[in-house]
Amino acid sequence: MNGIDRIRSAILAEAETEAGRIVEAAKKAAFERVQSEKDKITRTFDLEFSAKAREVDARLERELALFRGEAGKRVLAKKNELVRRVFETAKAEILSWPRARYESLMERLVEKASGGAPGRLIVHPDDEDVFRALLERVNAGRAASGRIDVDGVDRLRQRGGFVFVGSSYEVDMRIETLIGVLELEMAPEIARELFS
Question: Which end of the chain is more exposed for a tag (fewer CB within 10 A), N or C?
């Protein structure tokens, strides 16, 4: 091999070595670039996934809170309905008592409402005979000026109890009103007993 061939061989060998280094550097740069892009895509995906997951979780929390609120309202409505039924049953029970027992209760309520003062009772027409009978006993121990009479004009729409009308005040002693007051006072306690 002559000198030119040796030079050519050396140049080609060096060029081949350099080309190999350039190719390796290009492969390495390409690999790093691909890896960097993969990492970037993975980070972007992870961020988007996390954001979507938080969004879904927040939406589900809101929906769950709404559902719990609605369920709580329904449960409360049912509980209130049951408590109301208890008091409706009590009212029906009082109205179904034998006349003597009902009359005795009404007599005590008339004495309490009047406080010894004269007045008149507004009653339901179906209860008028009960009140006329009990007023005979109540009025027996009173002076003529302290008498209580059944109102001949005004009437209650529903049977059960009365409204006492004095000279300067009225006392609502209708069963419906008395039960309503008891319901307000006792509903929390009854609800605790029924639903604990």
Answer: C
Q: What is d(CA 59, CA 57) in angstroms, rounded to the nearest whole number? A: 5
- What are the Cα distances from residue 130, in Å, to 15, 85, 137, 161, 183? 128, 27, 12, 10, 26
Q: Which position has the token pair 């507004």?
A: 122
At 120, which amino acid appears? R
The tokens describing 181, both together, are: 């007051």
Of residues 6 and 187, which shows the higher confidence score? 6
pLDDT of 146-196, one tens digit each? 899 999 899 999 999 999 999 899 999 999 998 888 888 776 776 666 666
Model confidence, pTM: 0.60
**What is the per-residue DSSP string for the chain?**
--HHHHHHHHHHHHHHHHHHHHHHHHHHHHHHHHHHHHHHHHHHHHHHHHHHHHHHHHHHHHHHHHHHHHHHHHHHHHHHHHHHHHHHHHHHHHHTS-HHHHHHHHHHHHHHHHTT--EEEE--GGGHHHHHHHHHHHHHTS-GGG-EEE-SS---SSSSEEEEE-SS-EEEEEHHHHHHHHHHHHHHHHHHHHH-
CB 188 within 8 A of CB 86: no
